[in-house]
UniProtKB/TrEMBL annotation:
Residues 1-29 form the signal peptide. The chain crosses the membrane at residues 45-67, 87-106, 112-134, 141-162, 168-188, 209-238, 288-316, 322-342, 354-373, 379-400, 412-435, 447-468. GO terms for cellular component: membrane. It is a multi-pass membrane protein. This is Flippase.
Length: 481
Protein backbone atom coordinates (compact mmCIF):
# COMPACT_ATOMS: atom_id res chain seq x y z
CA UNK A 1 0.00 0.00 0.00
CA UNK A 2 1.31 3.45 -0.86
CA UNK A 3 2.04 5.95 1.88
CA UNK A 4 -0.54 8.33 0.42
CA UNK A 5 -3.32 5.75 0.43
CA UNK A 6 -2.47 4.87 4.00
CA UNK A 7 -2.62 8.55 4.95
CA UNK A 8 -6.05 8.91 3.39
CA UNK A 9 -7.29 5.75 5.08
CA UNK A 10 -6.11 7.20 8.37
CA UNK A 11 -7.80 10.52 7.61
CA UNK A 12 -11.02 8.71 6.71
CA UNK A 13 -11.03 6.70 9.94
CA UNK A 14 -10.20 9.71 12.10
CA UNK A 15 -12.65 11.92 10.22
CA UNK A 16 -15.47 9.45 10.87
CA UNK A 17 -14.58 9.42 14.54
CA UNK A 18 -14.21 13.17 14.78
CA UNK A 19 -17.49 13.72 12.94
CA UNK A 20 -19.24 11.57 15.52
CA UNK A 21 -17.34 13.03 18.46
CA UNK A 22 -17.76 16.57 17.18
CA UNK A 23 -21.49 16.13 16.75
CA UNK A 24 -21.97 14.50 20.13
CA UNK A 25 -19.51 16.93 21.72
CA UNK A 26 -21.41 19.92 20.35
CA UNK A 27 -24.70 18.50 21.58
CA UNK A 28 -23.21 17.72 25.00
CA UNK A 29 -21.63 21.16 25.32
CA UNK A 30 -24.80 22.90 24.18
CA UNK A 31 -26.97 20.93 26.61
CA UNK A 32 -24.54 21.40 29.50
CA UNK A 33 -24.13 25.13 28.84
CA UNK A 34 -27.89 25.67 28.68
CA UNK A 35 -28.91 23.63 31.73
CA UNK A 36 -25.99 24.73 33.92
CA UNK A 37 -26.08 28.39 32.88
CA UNK A 38 -23.00 30.60 32.29
CA UNK A 39 -21.99 30.61 35.98
CA UNK A 40 -21.84 26.83 36.59
CA UNK A 41 -20.63 26.23 33.04
CA UNK A 42 -17.81 28.63 33.84
CA UNK A 43 -16.85 26.55 36.88
CA UNK A 44 -16.77 23.44 34.70
CA UNK A 45 -14.65 25.21 32.07
CA UNK A 46 -12.24 26.49 34.74
CA UNK A 47 -11.84 22.97 36.09
CA UNK A 48 -11.34 21.49 32.63
CA UNK A 49 -8.48 23.89 31.97
CA UNK A 50 -6.87 23.19 35.35
CA UNK A 51 -7.16 19.46 34.70
CA UNK A 52 -5.51 19.88 31.31
CA UNK A 53 -2.37 21.14 33.04
CA UNK A 54 -2.44 18.33 35.60
CA UNK A 55 -2.79 15.78 32.78
CA UNK A 56 0.36 17.15 31.14
CA UNK A 57 2.39 16.06 34.14
CA UNK A 58 0.95 12.57 33.73
CA UNK A 59 1.94 12.33 30.08
CA UNK A 60 5.20 14.36 30.08
CA UNK A 61 5.62 13.99 26.32
CA UNK A 62 5.57 10.19 26.58
CA UNK A 63 2.93 9.72 23.88
CA UNK A 64 4.84 11.75 21.28
CA UNK A 65 8.05 9.91 22.16
CA UNK A 66 6.34 6.52 21.90
CA UNK A 67 4.78 7.39 18.53
CA UNK A 68 8.18 8.32 17.16
CA UNK A 69 9.90 5.19 18.43
CA UNK A 70 7.17 2.69 17.53
CA UNK A 71 6.70 4.21 14.05
CA UNK A 72 10.36 3.39 13.37
CA UNK A 73 10.40 -0.04 15.03
CA UNK A 74 7.05 -1.70 15.59
CA UNK A 75 8.66 -4.49 17.57
CA UNK A 76 8.88 -1.98 20.41
CA UNK A 77 5.08 -1.65 20.65
CA UNK A 78 4.67 -4.21 23.43
CA UNK A 79 7.53 -3.48 25.84
CA UNK A 80 7.45 0.30 25.33
CA UNK A 81 3.68 0.39 25.96
CA UNK A 82 4.18 -1.50 29.22
CA UNK A 83 6.78 0.97 30.41
CA UNK A 84 4.74 3.99 29.35
CA UNK A 85 1.50 2.80 30.97
CA UNK A 86 3.20 1.85 34.23
CA UNK A 87 5.10 5.12 34.40
CA UNK A 88 2.02 7.20 33.61
CA UNK A 89 -0.07 5.36 36.23
CA UNK A 90 2.52 6.15 38.89
CA UNK A 91 2.57 9.76 37.74
CA UNK A 92 -1.25 9.90 37.82
CA UNK A 93 -1.29 8.92 41.50
CA UNK A 94 1.35 11.50 42.42
CA UNK A 95 -0.14 14.29 40.32
CA UNK A 96 -3.64 13.47 41.56
CA UNK A 97 -2.57 13.89 45.18
CA UNK A 98 -0.83 17.20 44.46
CA UNK A 99 -3.81 18.44 42.44
CA UNK A 100 -6.21 17.62 45.27
CA UNK A 101 -4.04 19.51 47.76
CA UNK A 102 -3.91 22.50 45.40
CA UNK A 103 -7.68 22.56 44.90
CA UNK A 104 -8.42 22.31 48.62
CA UNK A 105 -6.12 25.29 49.23
CA UNK A 106 -7.97 27.52 46.74
CA UNK A 107 -10.07 30.41 47.99
CA UNK A 108 -13.20 29.01 46.36
CA UNK A 109 -16.57 27.80 47.70
CA UNK A 110 -16.70 24.11 48.63
CA UNK A 111 -19.20 23.45 45.82
CA UNK A 112 -16.63 24.70 43.29
CA UNK A 113 -13.88 22.61 44.88
CA UNK A 114 -16.07 19.51 44.69
CA UNK A 115 -16.42 19.94 40.91
CA UNK A 116 -12.67 20.47 40.49
CA UNK A 117 -11.84 17.40 42.58
CA UNK A 118 -14.29 15.20 40.70
CA UNK A 119 -12.62 16.10 37.42
CA UNK A 120 -9.41 14.49 38.70
CA UNK A 121 -10.88 11.10 37.72
CA UNK A 122 -9.70 11.95 34.20
CA UNK A 123 -6.07 11.53 35.27
CA UNK A 124 -6.38 7.75 35.52
CA UNK A 125 -8.11 7.53 32.16
CA UNK A 126 -5.44 9.69 30.52
CA UNK A 127 -2.71 7.52 32.02
CA UNK A 128 -4.19 4.31 30.56
CA UNK A 129 -5.10 5.49 27.06
CA UNK A 130 -3.19 3.57 24.38
CA UNK A 131 -3.85 5.83 21.40
CA UNK A 132 -0.12 6.30 20.80
CA UNK A 133 0.32 2.63 19.85
CA UNK A 134 -2.42 2.65 17.24
CA UNK A 135 -1.36 6.02 15.88
CA UNK A 136 2.24 4.86 15.47
CA UNK A 137 1.14 1.63 13.76
CA UNK A 138 -1.35 3.58 11.62
CA UNK A 139 -4.43 1.74 12.85
CA UNK A 140 -6.58 4.80 13.33
CA UNK A 141 -9.81 2.82 13.26
CA UNK A 142 -9.14 1.60 16.80
CA UNK A 143 -8.67 5.18 18.00
CA UNK A 144 -11.83 6.16 16.14
CA UNK A 145 -13.86 3.47 17.90
CA UNK A 146 -12.63 4.56 21.32
CA UNK A 147 -13.33 8.22 20.67
CA UNK A 148 -16.83 7.50 19.40
CA UNK A 149 -17.59 5.33 22.42
CA UNK A 150 -16.35 7.97 24.84
CA UNK A 151 -18.24 10.86 23.25
CA UNK A 152 -21.54 9.10 22.69
CA UNK A 153 -21.50 7.51 26.14
CA UNK A 154 -20.83 10.88 27.75
CA UNK A 155 -23.58 12.53 25.71
CA UNK A 156 -26.22 9.99 26.70
CA UNK A 157 -25.32 10.15 30.39
CA UNK A 158 -25.34 13.95 30.37
CA UNK A 159 -28.79 13.97 28.75
CA UNK A 160 -30.14 11.54 31.31
CA UNK A 161 -28.58 12.91 34.48
CA UNK A 162 -27.57 16.59 34.11
CA UNK A 163 -30.67 18.77 34.63
CA UNK A 164 -29.64 21.99 36.37
CA UNK A 165 -26.81 24.10 37.86
CA UNK A 166 -26.63 21.81 40.88
CA UNK A 167 -25.52 18.93 38.61
CA UNK A 168 -22.14 20.43 37.69
CA UNK A 169 -20.32 17.84 39.81
CA UNK A 170 -22.22 15.06 38.05
CA UNK A 171 -21.25 16.44 34.64
CA UNK A 172 -17.60 16.39 35.77
CA UNK A 173 -17.90 12.78 36.95
CA UNK A 174 -19.45 11.64 33.66
CA UNK A 175 -16.56 13.02 31.60
CA UNK A 176 -13.83 11.46 33.74
CA UNK A 177 -15.64 8.15 34.11
CA UNK A 178 -16.22 7.78 30.36
CA UNK A 179 -12.55 8.36 29.56
CA UNK A 180 -11.44 5.79 32.13
CA UNK A 181 -13.91 3.10 31.07
CA UNK A 182 -12.98 3.46 27.40
CA UNK A 183 -9.27 3.33 28.25
CA UNK A 184 -9.82 0.00 30.02
CA UNK A 185 -11.72 -1.35 27.02
CA UNK A 186 -8.83 -0.31 24.79
CA UNK A 187 -6.38 -2.24 26.98
CA UNK A 188 -8.44 -5.33 26.25
CA UNK A 189 -8.13 -4.62 22.53
CA UNK A 190 -4.36 -4.16 22.86
CA UNK A 191 -4.01 -7.60 24.43
CA UNK A 192 -5.72 -9.11 21.39
CA UNK A 193 -3.55 -7.19 18.92
CA UNK A 194 -0.12 -7.16 20.58
CA UNK A 195 -0.22 -9.54 23.53
CA UNK A 196 -0.69 -9.19 27.26
CA UNK A 197 0.24 -6.07 29.20
CA UNK A 198 2.01 -6.26 32.51
CA UNK A 199 3.48 -3.60 34.78
CA UNK A 200 7.14 -2.87 34.09
CA UNK A 201 9.23 -1.01 36.62
CA UNK A 202 12.78 -0.26 35.52
CA UNK A 203 14.09 3.04 36.83
CA UNK A 204 17.00 3.09 34.41
CA UNK A 205 14.73 2.71 31.37
CA UNK A 206 12.25 5.20 32.81
CA UNK A 207 15.04 7.73 33.20
CA UNK A 208 16.11 7.21 29.58
CA UNK A 209 12.52 7.56 28.33
CA UNK A 210 11.84 10.69 30.38
CA UNK A 211 15.11 12.27 29.29
CA UNK A 212 14.28 11.74 25.62
CA UNK A 213 10.68 12.88 26.08
CA UNK A 214 11.47 15.95 28.22
CA UNK A 215 11.84 18.47 25.36
CA UNK A 216 8.58 17.21 23.86
CA UNK A 217 6.88 17.53 27.24
CA UNK A 218 7.98 21.14 27.62
CA UNK A 219 6.83 21.93 24.10
CA UNK A 220 3.43 20.35 24.74
CA UNK A 221 3.17 22.17 28.07
CA UNK A 222 3.88 25.44 26.29
CA UNK A 223 1.17 24.56 23.77
CA UNK A 224 -1.25 24.00 26.65
CA UNK A 225 -0.48 27.50 27.90
CA UNK A 226 -2.02 28.80 24.69
CA UNK A 227 -4.97 26.43 24.91
CA UNK A 228 -5.94 26.72 28.56
CA UNK A 229 -4.12 29.57 30.30
CA UNK A 230 -6.69 32.19 29.34
CA UNK A 231 -9.55 30.21 30.94
CA UNK A 232 -7.49 29.45 34.05
CA UNK A 233 -6.51 33.10 34.54
CA UNK A 234 -10.07 34.26 33.91
CA UNK A 235 -11.15 31.78 36.60
CA UNK A 236 -8.96 33.61 39.08
CA UNK A 237 -9.48 37.16 37.79
CA UNK A 238 -13.08 37.37 36.50
CA UNK A 239 -16.61 36.32 37.57
CA UNK A 240 -17.61 32.78 36.70
CA UNK A 241 -20.28 34.12 34.33
CA UNK A 242 -17.60 35.69 32.13
CA UNK A 243 -15.61 32.47 32.36
CA UNK A 244 -18.73 30.69 31.12
CA UNK A 245 -19.05 33.01 28.11
CA UNK A 246 -15.41 32.59 27.26
CA UNK A 247 -15.51 28.82 27.82
CA UNK A 248 -18.25 28.59 25.19
CA UNK A 249 -16.03 30.43 22.69
CA UNK A 250 -13.05 28.21 23.57
CA UNK A 251 -15.19 25.09 23.17
CA UNK A 252 -16.06 26.12 19.61
CA UNK A 253 -12.45 26.99 18.82
CA UNK A 254 -11.30 23.61 20.15
CA UNK A 255 -13.81 21.83 17.95
CA UNK A 256 -12.68 23.93 14.99
CA UNK A 257 -9.09 22.79 15.58
CA UNK A 258 -10.13 19.11 15.60
CA UNK A 259 -10.10 18.98 11.81
CA UNK A 260 -6.46 20.00 11.83
CA UNK A 261 -5.66 17.38 14.44
CA UNK A 262 -7.22 14.70 12.23
CA UNK A 263 -4.96 15.63 9.33
CA UNK A 264 -1.90 16.04 11.54
CA UNK A 265 -2.32 12.67 13.26
CA UNK A 266 -2.85 10.93 9.92
CA UNK A 267 0.29 12.44 8.35
CA UNK A 268 2.61 12.35 11.36
CA UNK A 269 3.74 8.70 11.09
CA UNK A 270 4.60 9.17 7.40
CA UNK A 271 6.43 12.42 8.11
CA UNK A 272 8.40 10.61 10.81
CA UNK A 273 9.26 7.79 8.41
CA UNK A 274 10.53 10.30 5.83
CA UNK A 275 13.13 11.74 8.21
CA UNK A 276 16.62 11.64 6.69
CA UNK A 277 15.46 11.84 3.05
CA UNK A 278 15.14 15.56 2.27
CA UNK A 279 13.30 15.09 -1.02
CA UNK A 280 10.76 12.80 0.59
CA UNK A 281 10.37 15.14 3.56
CA UNK A 282 9.64 18.04 1.21
CA UNK A 283 7.20 16.05 -0.90
CA UNK A 284 5.18 14.87 2.08
CA UNK A 285 5.32 18.28 3.70
CA UNK A 286 3.85 19.94 0.61
CA UNK A 287 1.00 17.43 0.60
CA UNK A 288 0.50 17.90 4.33
CA UNK A 289 0.54 21.70 4.03
CA UNK A 290 -1.96 21.65 1.17
CA UNK A 291 -4.50 19.56 3.07
CA UNK A 292 -4.03 21.47 6.32
CA UNK A 293 -4.30 24.90 4.71
CA UNK A 294 -7.43 23.93 2.80
CA UNK A 295 -9.14 22.52 5.88
CA UNK A 296 -7.96 25.33 8.13
CA UNK A 297 -9.02 28.13 5.80
CA UNK A 298 -12.56 26.76 5.55
CA UNK A 299 -12.91 26.21 9.29
CA UNK A 300 -11.56 29.65 10.18
CA UNK A 301 -13.70 31.38 7.56
CA UNK A 302 -16.83 29.75 8.89
CA UNK A 303 -16.00 30.64 12.48
CA UNK A 304 -15.22 34.28 11.75
CA UNK A 305 -18.25 34.87 9.53
CA UNK A 306 -20.81 32.93 11.57
CA UNK A 307 -19.64 33.42 15.18
CA UNK A 308 -22.87 35.00 16.55
CA UNK A 309 -25.06 32.44 14.78
CA UNK A 310 -22.93 29.54 16.04
CA UNK A 311 -23.16 30.74 19.65
CA UNK A 312 -26.89 31.39 19.46
CA UNK A 313 -27.56 28.01 17.86
CA UNK A 314 -25.50 25.99 20.30
CA UNK A 315 -25.62 27.84 23.59
CA UNK A 316 -28.50 30.30 23.37
CA UNK A 317 -28.83 34.06 23.71
CA UNK A 318 -27.21 34.04 27.17
CA UNK A 319 -23.82 33.58 25.46
CA UNK A 320 -24.06 36.51 23.00
CA UNK A 321 -21.19 38.41 24.75
CA UNK A 322 -18.79 35.70 23.54
CA UNK A 323 -19.20 36.63 19.84
CA UNK A 324 -16.25 39.02 19.57
CA UNK A 325 -13.86 36.80 21.60
CA UNK A 326 -14.90 33.87 19.40
CA UNK A 327 -14.01 35.78 16.24
CA UNK A 328 -10.62 36.68 17.71
CA UNK A 329 -10.04 33.06 18.73
CA UNK A 330 -10.95 31.86 15.24
CA UNK A 331 -8.27 34.15 13.80
CA UNK A 332 -5.94 32.59 16.38
CA UNK A 333 -7.01 29.19 15.01
CA UNK A 334 -5.59 30.22 11.63
CA UNK A 335 -2.25 30.66 13.39
CA UNK A 336 -2.75 27.32 15.18
CA UNK A 337 -3.12 25.58 11.82
CA UNK A 338 0.10 27.23 10.63
CA UNK A 339 1.77 26.07 13.83
CA UNK A 340 0.60 22.48 13.28
CA UNK A 341 1.93 22.57 9.72
CA UNK A 342 5.34 23.95 10.59
CA UNK A 343 5.86 22.83 14.17
CA UNK A 344 4.60 19.31 14.74
CA UNK A 345 6.84 17.70 12.09
CA UNK A 346 9.81 19.11 14.01
CA UNK A 347 8.89 16.85 16.93
CA UNK A 348 9.39 13.71 14.84
CA UNK A 349 12.45 15.10 13.06
CA UNK A 350 14.54 15.43 16.24
CA UNK A 351 14.10 19.21 16.40
CA UNK A 352 12.02 19.12 19.57
CA UNK A 353 14.38 21.41 21.51
CA UNK A 354 13.92 24.32 19.13
CA UNK A 355 10.18 23.74 19.07
CA UNK A 356 10.16 23.66 22.87
CA UNK A 357 12.00 26.99 23.17
CA UNK A 358 9.71 28.71 20.66
CA UNK A 359 6.52 27.42 22.29
CA UNK A 360 7.74 28.11 25.82
CA UNK A 361 8.68 31.68 24.90
CA UNK A 362 5.26 32.18 23.38
CA UNK A 363 3.67 30.70 26.47
CA UNK A 364 5.47 33.15 28.73
CA UNK A 365 4.32 36.00 26.49
CA UNK A 366 0.77 34.67 26.69
CA UNK A 367 0.87 34.67 30.48
CA UNK A 368 2.21 38.23 30.64
CA UNK A 369 -0.37 39.51 28.17
CA UNK A 370 -3.19 37.82 30.08
CA UNK A 371 -2.10 39.47 33.30
CA UNK A 372 -1.98 42.83 31.53
CA UNK A 373 -5.06 42.63 29.30
CA UNK A 374 -7.67 40.63 31.26
CA UNK A 375 -8.16 43.32 33.97
CA UNK A 376 -8.44 45.98 31.25
CA UNK A 377 -10.38 44.25 28.49
CA UNK A 378 -11.89 41.13 30.08
CA UNK A 379 -12.61 38.19 27.80
CA UNK A 380 -11.63 40.18 24.69
CA UNK A 381 -8.22 40.76 26.28
CA UNK A 382 -7.82 37.03 26.96
CA UNK A 383 -8.58 36.24 23.32
CA UNK A 384 -6.15 38.89 22.06
CA UNK A 385 -3.41 37.58 24.34
CA UNK A 386 -3.85 34.09 22.89
CA UNK A 387 -3.73 35.39 19.29
CA UNK A 388 -0.63 37.55 19.89
CA UNK A 389 1.32 34.82 21.66
CA UNK A 390 0.36 32.18 19.06
CA UNK A 391 1.62 34.47 16.31
CA UNK A 392 4.94 35.12 18.06
CA UNK A 393 5.61 31.42 18.65
CA UNK A 394 4.64 30.45 15.11
CA UNK A 395 7.00 33.02 13.58
CA UNK A 396 9.87 31.47 15.54
CA UNK A 397 8.80 27.97 14.50
CA UNK A 398 8.61 29.07 10.87
CA UNK A 399 12.27 30.09 11.05
CA UNK A 400 13.17 26.67 12.47
CA UNK A 401 11.12 24.83 9.87
CA UNK A 402 12.76 26.68 7.01
CA UNK A 403 16.18 25.71 8.32
CA UNK A 404 15.18 22.02 8.22
CA UNK A 405 13.45 21.70 4.83
CA UNK A 406 14.11 25.08 3.18
CA UNK A 407 10.45 25.84 2.46
CA UNK A 408 7.53 27.71 4.08
CA UNK A 409 4.75 27.08 1.50
CA UNK A 410 4.00 30.79 1.06
CA UNK A 411 2.23 30.31 -2.26
CA UNK A 412 -0.14 27.74 -0.80
CA UNK A 413 -0.76 29.93 2.24
CA UNK A 414 -1.59 32.97 0.07
CA UNK A 415 -4.16 30.94 -1.88
CA UNK A 416 -5.71 29.66 1.35
CA UNK A 417 -5.97 33.19 2.79
CA UNK A 418 -7.61 34.44 -0.42
CA UNK A 419 -10.14 31.60 -0.45
CA UNK A 420 -10.90 32.05 3.23
CA UNK A 421 -11.26 35.83 2.87
CA UNK A 422 -13.73 35.49 0.00
CA UNK A 423 -15.75 32.98 2.03
CA UNK A 424 -15.86 35.32 5.05
CA UNK A 425 -17.02 38.18 2.85
CA UNK A 426 -19.76 36.01 1.37
CA UNK A 427 -20.98 34.97 4.81
CA UNK A 428 -21.03 38.53 6.17
CA UNK A 429 -22.75 39.96 3.07
CA UNK A 430 -25.42 37.27 3.15
CA UNK A 431 -26.02 37.92 6.86
CA UNK A 432 -26.47 41.64 6.24
CA UNK A 433 -28.80 41.10 3.28
CA UNK A 434 -30.83 38.33 4.93
CA UNK A 435 -30.97 39.85 8.43
CA UNK A 436 -34.43 41.45 7.94
CA UNK A 437 -35.82 38.16 6.61
CA UNK A 438 -34.29 36.09 9.44
CA UNK A 439 -35.14 38.56 12.21
CA UNK A 440 -37.73 36.29 13.78
CA UNK A 441 -36.39 32.99 12.48
CA UNK A 442 -34.56 30.49 14.70
CA UNK A 443 -30.81 31.05 15.05
CA UNK A 444 -30.14 27.81 13.21
CA UNK A 445 -31.68 29.29 10.04
CA UNK A 446 -29.09 32.08 10.11
CA UNK A 447 -26.34 29.54 10.72
CA UNK A 448 -27.40 27.18 7.92
CA UNK A 449 -27.85 29.91 5.30
CA UNK A 450 -24.49 31.42 6.20
CA UNK A 451 -22.81 28.01 6.08
CA UNK A 452 -24.09 27.38 2.56
CA UNK A 453 -22.67 30.71 1.40
CA UNK A 454 -19.30 30.20 3.10
CA UNK A 455 -18.80 26.63 1.87
CA UNK A 456 -20.04 27.36 -1.65
CA UNK A 457 -17.80 30.38 -2.19
CA UNK A 458 -14.83 28.64 -0.57
CA UNK A 459 -15.19 25.54 -2.74
CA UNK A 460 -15.37 27.63 -5.91
CA UNK A 461 -12.38 29.72 -4.84
CA UNK A 462 -10.19 26.67 -4.12
CA UNK A 463 -10.81 25.34 -7.62
CA UNK A 464 -10.24 28.71 -9.30
CA UNK A 465 -7.00 29.41 -7.41
CA UNK A 466 -5.71 25.86 -7.81
CA UNK A 467 -5.44 25.32 -4.05
CA UNK A 468 -7.31 22.04 -4.56
CA UNK A 469 -6.23 20.06 -7.62
CA UNK A 470 -7.26 16.48 -8.41
CA UNK A 471 -3.85 15.87 -9.97
CA UNK A 472 -2.13 16.88 -6.72
CA UNK A 473 -4.31 14.46 -4.77
CA UNK A 474 -3.49 11.67 -7.21
CA UNK A 475 0.22 12.39 -6.78
CA UNK A 476 -0.16 12.19 -3.03
CA UNK A 477 -1.93 8.83 -3.14
CA UNK A 478 0.78 7.57 -5.43
CA UNK A 479 3.62 8.32 -3.00
CA UNK A 480 5.27 5.04 -2.03
CA UNK A 481 6.74 4.10 1.31
Amino acid sequence: MTAGRRIFQNIRALAAAKAATMASGLVTAAWTARVLGPDSFGVLGFGTSLMAYAALFVNLGLSTYAIREIARDREQAGPLSEHVLTLRTVLAVIVGALYAAFVLALDKPMAVKAVLLMQAVQLLGNALVLDFVYQATERMGVIATREIGTSIGSMLLVFLLVRGPEDAILAAAITGGSITVNALVMIGRFRRDFGSLRPRIDLKIWREILTAAAPMAVGVFAWAIFTHLDVVMLGFMAPHTEVGWYSAAVKIQTLANLAGNIVMNAFLPQLAAAYGDLDQMRERMRAYATVMLTVGALVVAGGVALAPAILATLFGDAYDPAALPLRILMVASAVVYANMILGNPLLVWHRQTGYMIAMLSGGVLNALLNVWWIPRYGIQGAAMATLTAELAATLAIAWLHRRVVGELYGGLAAKAVLCGGLAVAAGLILHRVAAPLLNKAPAIADFLSGSVAVVGVFAAATLLTGLVRPTRLRRLTGVTV
